[in-house]
Prior knowledge:
Elements: H1 3-11, E1 25-28, E2 34-36, H2 42-52, E3 53-59, E4 64-72, H3 75-87, E5 96-99, E6 105-111, H4 114-124, H5 132-142, H6 148-160, H7 177-197, H8 202-213, H9 218-225, H10 229-237
Antiparallel strand pairs: 1-2, 3-4, 4-6, 5-6
Helix pairs in contact: 4-5, 5-6
Amino acid sequence: MTLSGALNSVTNYCVGASDAYGIDEGPSSGSGETQPREYHTWEQVAGYFDGDGNVRVEVGTFVLRLGVRFADTWKPQLEAIRAFLVNQGVTLSPVGAERRKDGRPMFRLDVGEVQSVVKVMRSLLPLSVKKHEDLRIALDYFEGRITGSQALDGFGEQVSLGRRRGNKRIADLPYTRAQGLRLYQLANAERARIAHRVKVPIDVKRRIKRDRKRGMGIASLRRKYGYTHGVLERVIREPSEGTD
């Protein structure tokens, strides 16, 4: 589908006040509000996403964590989108809430599970107009065509063009997603090897085990004894040596 065709497709669902978000209007709730019934098509969801959705970006040490987010001040709106996505086989969280600076509630719907994120992005890509490039960049990263640094540069360009909100993100991630995940696994393995090599005196091991049995958490044990999470977990798992 061409970009102009996608624009016409989305526009068809945004004509008139009752179709502003591309959904059917249900009966009044009795408080003056109209309850949404349901979304029927990806075109409707794409129209909403272009207005009040975004590609969520979190920068990790080796990889970018990308997701799809819908936001609204009216929770039933997002519940209707969630119902459609669940019917399409998408795994996602319940509708969440947070407070804006003015004290009003803001609701959000996040898709974070990788396979579901890719499914939603692929479905929205040919139908989205304003967020088309955000989706393309994200899919290029998921599918190994660009590095994390290139993806961030692309998102930054969309901020400059006014198609994306927020600040430009800069990070040194010269790896594709697959390369970054491999580096993450190697780094974790190295931390595990280091933890295994660290020697903990027997009397300290006993005190750590005693404090753990008394309910002290790992974070508190780290502050008290100065060992890393991996070392403490190893000590706790080890069988007691002679006495406890």
